[in-house]
Specification:
97 residues; alpha/beta; Transcription Regulator spoIIAA; 4-stranded mixed sheet; 3 helices; 4 strands; 30% helix; 30% strand; globular
């Protein structure tokens, strides 16, 4: 298992790498605690995700909702095929557009 890691690349740009699975996410993860600045959009580059499962997708949806409540739009970039497939199966693709 590869641990989930989020690296800040700039004020609004973050890189998410490793596994986004039920074994790697938790209440103490980045999206629940990261202090976001005054920007209205945050970009998450997912090109280095090695594995995603339905729990990881649920975590992204939950995080998206939390950001939305704060008036921040979460934009995903370089979405891996595995995550795209899960998003299509769950009919949630339009949430992240």
């Amino acid at each position: 298992m590869t641990k989930l890691a989020v690296t800040q690349l700039g004020e609004q740009q973050f890189k998410v790498s490793g596994e986004l699975t039920r074994n790697s996410i938790g209440d103490d993860q980045f999206l629940n605690k990261q202090a976001l600045n005054e920007h209205k959009t945050c970009y998450f580059d997912l090109c280095e995700l090695t594995r995603v499962d339905t729990a990881g997708l649920a975590w992204l949806i939950h995080s998206f909702a939390q950001f939305k409540q704060q008036g921040i739009h979460l934009e995903l970039q370089n979405i891996p095929e595995q995550l795209q497939n899960l998003m299509q199966l769950g009919h949630v693709t339009t949430l992240f557009e």
